[in-house]
Amino acid sequence: MKLTNRSKVVSNKEMTFMEKLYLPEIVKGMAITLRHALEGPKGKVFSYPEVQKPRAKVWRGHHVLKRDEEGRERCTACGLCAVACPAEAITMTAAERTKEEKHLYREEKYASVYEINMLRCIFCGMCEEACPKSAIYLTDRLVDVEENRGSFIYGKDKLVEDVNNRIDITDRQSEKQKKAVK
Ligand code: SF4
Ligand code: SF4
Question: What 8-state DSSP symbol labels residue 165?
Fold first, then answer.
């Protein structure tokens, strides 16, 4: 569902004659590669993904949709995160909670679909700041490598935390925010 009209369709601009030749750009690219190969690595080298560079606790990576202390999803599908998102990366569909679903969702409204396009996301943290329900946080987890673009659209299956394997985000919260979480 489209929540704002900020996105614009970008048209492909016509390539110049030199760009159509490709060769000058290939030679430039090869020259850069050769220069780096001759200079050797600068600083410590990590054999990713086996060895990962240490990340700060407040590093902004893969989001999590939090549950409350009773295991219910906190998100109420208000859309504020999507409106705050400068990359138009978030979309959702709201649904009404039924009586039988009270143990699943904290509020009367919830997100039946919640998606983040990780290719669009710039990990700015605006969604986290905009959320009035402390429902979305960025975490220090990396977004996985995928083989096709569609797999980078993360749905609730990847975003909502596992009820038995909670994700600790307390390092990201200020003392003021910890007190404000209801
Ligand atoms: S981190 Fe920023 S760009 Fe990514 S979904 Fe949140 S608001 Fe959008
Ligand atoms: S994550 Fe927060 S801001 Fe976004 S829709 Fe859910 S409750 Fe609203």
Answer: B
Query: Global pTM?
Result: 0.80
CA of 106 to the centre of ligand 1 (A): 23
Nearest CA to ligand 2 atom 7: 75
- Position of tokens 């939090």? 66
What is the percent of the chain where pLDDT is above 90? Answer: 70
Query: How confident is the model at residue 110, as a pLDDT?
Result: 98
Q: Residue 177 pLDDT > 90, yes or no?
A: no
Q: Output the CA 90–ligand 1 centroid distance in Å.
A: 7
The beta-strand segments (E) located in the chain are 61-65, 90-96, 109-117, 136-139, 153-154
- Label the pairing between strands 109-117 and 153-154: antiparallel
Question: Candidates 6, 65, 122, 131: which one to mutate for ligand 1, based on the most atoms within 8 Å of Cβ?
Answer: 122
What the chain holds in terms of domains, given with CATH numbers, is 61-180 (3.30.70.3270)
Note if the bond before 49 is cis, omega within 30 degrees.
yes
**Measured over all CA atoms, what is the biggest interatomic distance in the chain, rounded to whole angstroms?**
67
Question: 130 CA distance to ligand 2 centroid (A)?
Answer: 8
- Residue 182's pLDDT is what? 67
d(CA 136, CA 178): 14
pLDDT-derived band at 13 (thresholds 50, 70, 90) equals confident
